[in-house]
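Design job #97: recover the sequence.
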């Protein structure tokens, strides 16, 4: 790697996961840890690991986007300016060989703004929800429209668009990628292991909150960039509203008008789940995904509605956390 790489890792009360993540950042010129009010000694652990620590101002509304911007501001105002920045959450661990592989791709193509790889769940065997996360992260290799929270990014590209939108409580990377692509930068997913992530999802309530947050992110993304030709998040938002609100509303309205026999139409939900499970191979994991995808439309729709209601009354939503 001929160009220096910096890393920005954000977290709060990550416990043993933070030292493990910091230790995995080998071959990085500078490591910036942005802490959002930890009380478990995370800042001391980061300093002991050689990281530069930025304590986020917690008198203002926290967002992951604001924390990442704080890391970028620190890079710009102190020390050497890197060519590339590896972003990572505090509950993640970088995989061996990732930085060299990703940096080589960025160096070979000056038009690439972002490169990301395979994020994996550390404990997929633990719960159905962890396995679902691992499946969601396995996106196709090649040119992509967006990335997630773990990615190697070109500093020039970040500077060109002003970094993250600090007001977003979720969906900050896809929104930023809309602006990157509009500015002419490309995003690519390469076939290489990138990070291990500890989702730590053990309860249905966590899954529900995570899906509600996704709905909120889709609604806000569509509000910001839903016009043609981008149509950002519009298909996802529409599916959530159709299957989470419109279809059940019509079925129950029909039942009120014609009798309870109309409730048999609710069978459309297990029918859709069965079709998906069969299409995915009929394995145990395929049936798990089919079930969660079907159930998830209801909290996703709630997230969409909540965003627009709060937007209309002028009361933005705080974080929707699931762990």
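Job complete. Output follows.
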């Amino acid at each position: 790697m001929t160009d220096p790489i910096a890393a920005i890792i954000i977290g709060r009360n990550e416990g043993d996961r933070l030292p493990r993540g910091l230790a995995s950042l080998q071959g990085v010129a500078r490591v910036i840890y942005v802490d959002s009010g930890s009380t478990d000694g995370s800042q001391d652990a980061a300093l002991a690991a050689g990281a530069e620590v930025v304590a986020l101002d917690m008198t203002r509304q926290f967002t992951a986007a604001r924390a990442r911007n704080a890391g970028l501001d620190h890079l710009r105002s102190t020390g050497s300016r890197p060519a590339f920045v590896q972003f990572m959450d505090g509950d993640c661990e970088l995989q061996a060989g990732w930085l060299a592989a990703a940096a080589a791709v960025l160096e070979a193509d000056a038009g690439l703004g972002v490169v990301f790889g395979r994020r994996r769940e550390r404990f997929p065997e633990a719960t159905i929800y962890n396995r679902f996360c691992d499946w969601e992260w396995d996106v196709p290799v090649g040119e992509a429209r967006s990335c997630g929270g773990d990615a190697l990014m070109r500093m020039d590209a970040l500077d060109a668009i002003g970094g993250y939108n600090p007001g977003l409580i979720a969906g900050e990377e896809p929104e930023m990628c809309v602006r990157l692509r509009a500015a002419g930068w490309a995003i690519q997913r390469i076939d290489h292991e990138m990070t291990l992530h500890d989702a730590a999802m053990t309860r249905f309530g966590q899954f529900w909150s995570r899906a509600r947050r996704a709905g909120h992110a889709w609604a806000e993304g569509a509000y910001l960039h839903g016009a043609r030709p981008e149509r950002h998040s519009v298909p996802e938002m529409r599916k959530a509203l159709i299957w989470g609100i419109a279809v059940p509303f019509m079925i129950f309205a029909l039942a009120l008008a014609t009798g309870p026999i109309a409730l048999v139409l609710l069978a459309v939900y297990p029918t859709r789940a069965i079709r998906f499970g069969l299409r995915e191979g009929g394995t145990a994991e395929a049936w798990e995904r089919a079930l969660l995808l079907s159930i998830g439309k209801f909290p996703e729709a709630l997230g969409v509605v909540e965003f627009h209601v709060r937007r209309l009354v002028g009361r933005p939503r705080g974080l929707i956390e699931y762990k």
